[in-house]
Each structure stands twice: as structure tokens, then as C-alpha cells.
Amino acid sequence: MCTRRRPGFTLVELLVVIAIIGVLIGLLLPAVQNVRAAAARASCANNLKQIALATINFHDSEGAFPPARIAERPADPGPFGSGPLTAPGEHPTWFVRILPYLEQQAAYGLWDLTQTYASNPVEARQYVVKAYLCPARRGPDNAITPPTLGPPIHLPCGCTFAGWPVAGGASADYAGNHGDLSPGSSGLPTDFYWGGYGTGVIISSRSTWVNGSPRGWIDKVRMSDVTDGASNTALAGEMHVPRGKLASVPDNGPCYDGTRFYNEARVGGPGVPLSRGPDDDVFGMGLYAFGSWHPGGVCQFAFADGRVAGVRPEISTLVLERLLNRADGQVIPDY
Question: What confidence tens digit (pLDDT) does each residue in 264-286 have?
Fold first, then answer.
């Protein structure tokens, strides 16, 4: 009796097919990863564009760029005219002030800028703005810094920050351009992070006080002060955050909390290069630095005219300094 063979694969044929599929997946996976990385970078650039336009609109409405934070100089009288503030910078940052220009009026309505950051309601402090987050790093579900006790910090520049209680709140992946280190960074009352000494566009400022509460800011940066040109001067950029330190104090504290300069602003130039990626400690100056998690470490900046451009981490620190200083009068070469 004749039997007919049933069609099917032999074991060898099946193994060959599996091998071919594996090779195809190996070829396609890098392409898929590259597409995802490109999409994340484009979305990040769009976030910076939104932040830049909101900040420029704030300038047009208020007559000046928003202050990075309120920070009295240690030698200046405090709000009661009897000495320096006991906790300079503890009021809300520029990230709060531009909320209405990001179509976040409801979130802005939760804030009272005359009160300290910690005195504002939890729902305000923990409000996550998607435009403040780079999709190459995280989503909104990983953007809340928990309440904690910040550790004391000693930086190579000689700066020392004592430990302090952190109320917790939403963090961000972007920072205002505070400028370079030319005013100094050695623990003096004239250091760059005190009111009015920043050389960038979003700088710390002293405040005018009424009944012990800030009602305005003194050290105003206007577009006319950006004498190097709006297209040549950075407004904001991606802040360096080490891998594994997202929403963690001190590396990525609450962006609305002005108690520490590096929560909402960064600097660059000689002594503080761009980060080369999330595993770079930037010579111990990572808390001050700009940097990204994009392939190749390309760091994106929004400029004072609203444009967005990527900057390679290999850029000369002298050229970086010129991009961040609003009025140094130096020619900026191709970068």
C-alpha cells in the first residue's frame, strides 16, 4: 500500500529559518533603536522650543527675562533690613513663572510666589510638566523627587553647600543658562550664583521686599542686555544628570525649588565642560554642568531668539563660555 508524505519542515530547515529570523532581527534592532533615539531627540528639541518661546513671551510681557531664583547676596540686608536671609533662594524658580506661557494657567494658579517653596501646596510642588522632561531619559512617572535631607556638598571649585531639608517636588531635565564662572566660584559673596552676578540670561536675582515677602526682582536681564546677539546666546539647555540619579537630591532636585542654584540653572566654560554622557562626572563639577543622554552626548540648547541647536560635547570650553555669556563681546567660531 502506497503512503503519501505529509508536507512539512525538517529539523534542519526549521533551524535555518530560525537562524535567518535571528539575523534579520539583529539587523533591524539597531535601526529601530536609531529611529527611537531620533524621535526622542526631536521631542526634546520641541520641549526646549516651547520653553524658549514661553520665556521670550514672559520677557515681552514683563519687560525682562524671569529670574532663575531669588537669591540675596550674603553681604546685603535681608527683607527685614537686619541682615542676610537665613535661607536665600528658598522661593519658587523661573519654571513657575513661565507656566502661564506654556498654557499651564491652572498649575500656575496653585502657586503663591510671595511664599517660600516649601510653604506652597503639595499639588503645586508635585505638578509635573511634560515639556520639562526629556523623553530620552524618562516619562512623568519618574519625575517626583521625594522629601529628603540633602547631603553636604563639597565641589572641586571650593564651593561648599551644607546639608538641608528638601520638601520634594517635580524635577526637570532642562536648566536656565546662568552664564560662566567668570564672576568667581570660591565661596565669596561675589560668586556667580548670588543675585545679579550671573553672566547668562536666566540668572539669580535679589528681590524687592514688602512685609518680609518678595514682590519683584532687582537684577533684570533684558533682551537689550544680550549684546552678543540673541541667536548667539543660549537661553536654556539640557542639564547633566548622572545615570541612576533622576529625581534624586542633589543631582536632580525639585525644579521649582530655588534653595539650590543647580536645581534650575547651570553654567559652562573653562572648569565646567559639557558632559559627555550620563556616566561622566564632569571632573567633579556635574552639579553645575549641562549635558544630555542622547547618542554621542549631543546637548541641545534653546537660544534667546527661540531657535534650538545641538552642541557636541567635544566643544571647546572657551567656545562654550562664549555661547553662555550674554555680553562678552567675543566672536563665536563654528561649533
Answer: 999 999 999 999 999 999 999 99
Pairing between strand 164-166 and 153-154?
A: unpaired
Q: State the first-to-last Cα distance of the chain, in angstroms, to the nearest integer.
A: 83
Closest CA to 205 of 144, 151, 163, 261: 261
Q: Write the CB contacts of 139 (distance below 8 Å, at least 6 apart in sequence).
A: 133
| Residue 13: predicted pLDDT | 66
Amino acid identity of residue 259, one-letter, is: T
- H or E segment and range at residue 145: strand 144-145
Dist. CA 307–CA 138, nearest whole Å: 24
Instruction: Return the number of other C-beta atoms located less than 10 Å from residue 218's C-beta.
Output: 14
Distance CA 42, CA 300 (A): 10
**CA distance linking residue 63 with residue 43, whole number of Å:** 29
Q: Based on the number of CB atoms within 10 Å of its own CB, is 196 exposed (0-12), middle (13-18) or buried (19 or more)?
A: buried
Q: Give the residue carrying C-alpha cell 520653553.
A: 51
| Of 35-39, 216-220, 284-288, minimum mean pLDDT range | 35-39
Domain ranges of the chain: 11-324
* CA atoms within a 13 Å half-sphere pointing along the CA-CB vector of 138: 22
> What residues does 309 pair with on adjacent strands?
301
What pairs with residue 234 in β-bridges? 303
What Å distances lie between residue 240 and 8, 91, 151, CA to CA?
57, 23, 19
Average pLDDT (139-164) is 84
Residue of 253, 241, 245, 239 whose CA lies nearest to 300: 239
Evaluate if residue 88 carries a pLDDT over 90. Answer: no
| Lookup: cell for 66 | 524671569
Q: What share of the chain is helix, strand, coil (3-state, %, to 5)?
A: 30, 15, 55
Query: C-alpha grid cell for residue 168?
Result: 520634594
Asked if the model's pLDDT at residue 26 lies above 80, the reply is no
Which residues, in sequence order, are bridge partners of residue 154? 160
Q: Which amino acid does the sequence have at 97?
A: R
Closest CA to 234 of 178, 183, 171, 296: 178
* 33 DSSP β-pair partners: none
